[in-house]
Amino acid sequence: MTGSPPFKLRSRAWFDNPDNIDMTALYLERYLNFGLSLEELRSGKPIIGIAQTGSDLSPCNRHHLVLAERVREGIREAGGIVLEFPVHPIQETGKRPTAGLDRNLAYLSLVETIYGYPLDGVVLTIGCDKTTPACLMAAATVNIPAIALSVGPMLNGWHKGERTGSGTIVWKARELLAAGEIDDAEFIRLVASSAPSTGYCNTMGTATTMNSLAEALGMSLPGSAAIPAPYRDRQECAYYTGKRIVEMVAEDLKPSDILTKDAFLNAIAVNSAIGGSTNAPIHLTAIARHIGVDVPLKTWEEHGLNVPLLVNLQPAGEYLGEDYYRAGGVPAVVAQLIQHGLIAEGAMTANGKTIGDNCRSAVIENEDVIRPFDMPLLASAGFVVLSGNLFDSAIMKTSVISPEFRERYLSNPNDPEAFEGPVVVFDGPEDYHARIDEISTGITPATLLVMRGAGPVGYPGAAEVVNMRPPAHLILDGIHSLPCIGDGRQSGTSGSPSILNASPEAAVGGTLALLRDGDRVRIDLMRGTADLLIDDAELEERRAAFAAAGGYRYPASQTPWQEIQRAVVGQLGSGAILEGAEAYQRIAQT
Ligand code: FES
Ligand code: MG
Questions:
Q1: Which residues contact 144 (CB under 8 A, 6 or more apart)?
Q2: C-alpha to C-alpha distances, 424 to 339, 403, 445, 481, 543, nearest whole angstrom
Q3: Chain mean position to CA 8
Q4: SUPFAM superfamilies, from UniProt (predicted)?
Q5: Residue nearest to atom 3 of ligand 1 (CA)
Q6: In angstroms, rounded to a whole number, what is the distance separating the alpha carbons of residues 61 and 152?
Q7: 206 C-alpha vs ligand 2 centroid, how far in Å?
Q8: How far apart are CA 434 and CA 437, in angstroms?
Q9: Ligand 1 atom closest to 93 (CA)
Q10: What ipTM was estimated for this complex?
């Protein structure tokens, strides 16, 4: 049992406020009404919220409904009172038009909940892609003691003796189906095999990435991110998370004590070492902006590009979530990075110790799954940050460039790491799906595919559609990927080396809007440039004509939130947050 903290808990303003006995009585009466006793409410025990992201609509996080029972027991054991409440659901694969639309909405509602109710601390139940950033962004804004509990990845998927990774297998199965190598029934079997249990995607997609980064940031217990959802260790972790949040309240250990610049730099290094998702820069930028820490996109290249790839998980490697956990998870990765000076060891974490103290002596249990620093899968695994006349910023995940891709596009000795070609442009995913296999689009192995109208405004929330498979006739000829460029996102489970998150997007007048089929585009990874090869005068002419014609046309909003978000959302390069919300930081700070 933790003693009372040496300061007044914020929940006392609701339940024990002699200055406002009228309201105090009203609050007390209704919270008593569902079963809490007056003694409990007036005891001075901290009130801990469980922000519940699991529901039938969110299968990836649904296991949190079970885990929350153990969290409650931990909270009570440590002397806290529990109030559990729902978070707006975000299911990556279930939400139309895209779950990207919901991160900021869940953020907004969670800020209102944590700020507006009598909570002294909160357990954030994270998991499926955007639940993690939504929760961390809200905790950053409100800034009461907060700890994240991951739901954990699914068990490994298997099909005919081979690991099938959630998400990643879908991209492969689509190619097999397009090439006529499997039928519809086998397609479904293959895809379903990759999701054998409760939990989030077992690949190094956005979910495993963001849960690993929540731990690397220090916002969850050390060693907790990789525990598979159904394992008993996951239940235990839920219990200890509940116990710990009560202590954090007593210690007044807040997100602002944990989410420091060092914490973000650590997370960026870890992201490279795990082969993390291209969604990570968007979400980390958003969290950083809400806590008030400056992490410009270039930081990802400066601190992340030359960090080696150590974790051998699909899509960049071969293994899955269970293997990652058994090999040592995040602490084993961090220990390797510590040995090479890539971690700021003094960064504070949720358990009250520094990341250095938590992870320094962690060992790798399987060197095929987590490689020692000196035997990496790749020497540099981060993101290249590109800019030019095509956009102000976009990123490319170099760790997923296949030998085939490298051979075809990046092997000119006179022009290393650069390629150029004519573009074929698609306006949104519907246009792409309608025309990709038509011969008349004129796609050849030299073509660069461009996806526009897929950014936070154009396809509200930004769709994960930039990784485009080549037309079926090219796949039959053995061409498995073409360079892709776009203003949308791409699934972290995709192994495509796309140039994505381009900002500004076409819908707000970015140069992608001016592209025409056949224009030549040049990408130089060494110099970090991406340019449309026409002269400046013609580019300006096009821009003027485009503006005069009314700008880029995108589909009308279908819901009120789409319209509201479109009016205030920023670009992917700066985290795609609700721009006005940044003014509200650490609002519960006393
Ligand atoms: Fe939810 Fe992948 S779809 S974690
Ligand atoms: Mg996704």
A1: 10, 114, 119, 120, 121, 122, 254, 588
A2: 46, 24, 12, 14, 19
A3: 35
A4: IlvD/EDD N-terminal domain-like (SSF143975), LeuD/IlvD-like (SSF52016)
A5: 92
A6: 9
A7: 6
A8: 8
A9: 3
A10: 0.91
